[in-house]
Amino acid sequence: MANVLMIHPDKCTGCRSCELACSFEKERQFRPRASRVHVFTWEREGVSVPMMCQHCDPAPCVSVCTPGAMRRNQASSRVEWDEARCIRCRMCVQACPFGNAVFDARTNGILKCDSCGGKPECVLFCPNRALEYAEDTLSTRSRKKAFVAKFKEAL
Amino acid sequence: MFGWVGSILRVDLTDRTTRTLPLDPALAKQFIGARGLATKIMYDEVDPTVDPLGPQNKLIFAPGPFSGTLAPSAGRYNIVTKGPLTGTIAASNSGGMLGAELKFAGYDLIILEGKADKPVYIFIRDGAVEIRDAIHLWGKEVPDTTDLLRAETDDDAKVACIGPAGERLALIANVLNEMHRAAGRSGVGAVMGSKNVKGLVVLGGGAVKAMDPAGFKTAMVRARNKILAHPVGGQGLKAFGTDVLINILNQTGGLPTRNFRDGYFPTADKVGGESLSATLLKRPKACFGCVISCGRVTEIVNPKYKGRGEGPEYETAWALGPDCGVDDLEAITKANYLCNELGLDPISMGATIACAMDLYEAGIIGLKETGGIPLTFGNAEAVVEMVRRTGLREGFGDKLALGSYRLAESYGHPEFSMTVKKQEMPAYDPRAVQGIGLNYATSNRGGCHVRGYTIASEVLGLPAKTDNLTTEGKAQLDIAFQNLTAALDATGACLFGVFGMEADDLAQMLTKLTGVDYPTEEFLRAGERIWNLERLFNLKAGFTAKDDTLPERLLKAPLPGGPAKGKVNRLGEMLPEYYHLRGWDKNGVPTEKKLKELALV
Fold first, then answer.
1. Interchain CB distance below 8 Å, B293 and A127
2. Among partner residues A10, A27, A46, which is closest to B285 by beta-carbon distance?
């Protein structure tokens, strides 16, 4: 069993509590730039979408990491960054097609979501359940269920 | 510093120079931030008798210590200046993302001084501040201005700007940030326009730090959970928006209808939050760090009023709706979009159109004055068109742009203006809700509900129900709300947070965040200090006790129908007690003793 971080843009109100919770947990300060999750909002349309690492497999950031600092944790199936092994070559930053690995000069570190080791703060602090930490095969359950509920009326 | 980021940015528009100075910790402790701290700067640096639209006035953008943190629903900022609509101190509060971004850029206050010789915008990227030409943006509406400013600065920048109304010095012009969030009241947009400043563009990569991170987290989670567990804060406002109040106030008989000619609107439900959610609502939207999500992303498909944007919230739906005798939700929403695009305060806009309709129906003005448009109550199309003309100051809109008091006075009938200190009152009739009348009369920025929202108690029963028709105890109630709100505003919190939170929660979060000890009574004392300082500013500006009043209609003309039929507001029963409990003399002037107690002398 593995849990995955699910993003539900339809529920996101754009409040960015996730960014605050993330940076407070990871950096002990409120600094959204250092957050591992970011919310993008289109104001004309009133749409907001949160975005963070989805732990690809194979992961481009792992493939290009020469010292083996970016590694898959086999037990959790998450991609984790090992600060001690990292040589700050930032190849992972270049490789991630989603922009979800970022170099932060202030901390001389790589900012990438690690799901807080299985207890993601962003999920805890999302007031709208737009972020969900769910079992892999059940992760889209709420979405499916909301849709199929229409059959209650149709049949 | 903790909570505060420790710097003030001064922008001299006349000389086109900027200076960054340290924030005085003693001042920050006393006045907290936002509305409080910026009012202190105004009081110390600006002669209260200056022309609000002259270069001597200052315009201050002020977030609070909570802005940029996880303190729940507390990402706000205030624009503080001398308001041109009222001539009083003005503190206009807005949400969105700008307040937090100012903190991340490293500033507790941005003080705009003087006047630019031609249109400019200010671009702040952390420590780098530029004053750039904005001639090519002059005349543009708010959404286009926002897009263009981002295109020439940074895609993620937060933008506050004025629309055509602010440029043309409409006294009911506002400042909008992130396109839809407004520092709405008292005409702060005209002050920005008078300084030739089209926009403020901010981008910050810095941090807000907590003195005691673990302690702050504990206090913050407790406060947050209280809001989330509250039926209004946690559920009602997200589901129906603030517009849910339409039916509630109508049932109280306190929904001002047709320019306060009545307090009951039979078809009110058509424009209430329940109807909005069932028709135009696309999704709820939140400001920075907000757990409530009262914002409304809406869309009108009907080709007649086609558009997409945010709103309406309660005051807007009322002002452009029942106050004008209108029950067409699509027209109201379209008029709201136009207010946002042109940069107008929807409360004063709607109430000014309502006043014009009242003048029209009384035969004081006719088609000649209105440019051929019959301004009868209920004419929804006319409301939409008048908003547009006001924003551009076209035809009759040029007069509407000055607000209802100046409009009605110009025709010799100021009694048709439903204003206090020349600012339009919002959506609660003081004849049906006595205490809110006292709040309107004593509010330091004129007709306004969010200085002392006694509606919470008198109508909603929060934290405890008081009889809306009695005057007894209302002076005390109003003072308690006014002091708490002043302190709360100064933190950067949203007033809606009190749908769950109490003063203790705010004081504890502030203590753990800043490292400055704020026992609850000290926190509330700061609110009282801010209130008295605002009062002193207004007294020096020339206001006296005789300005602490309500329009004659509310004091003498009984409500003709609805649940509060026959009632008038009995301000005279409340005001002397209010002065007494405030520690002011019978002329409404704070006594030396009170000022000493508040460390204001």
1. yes
2. A46
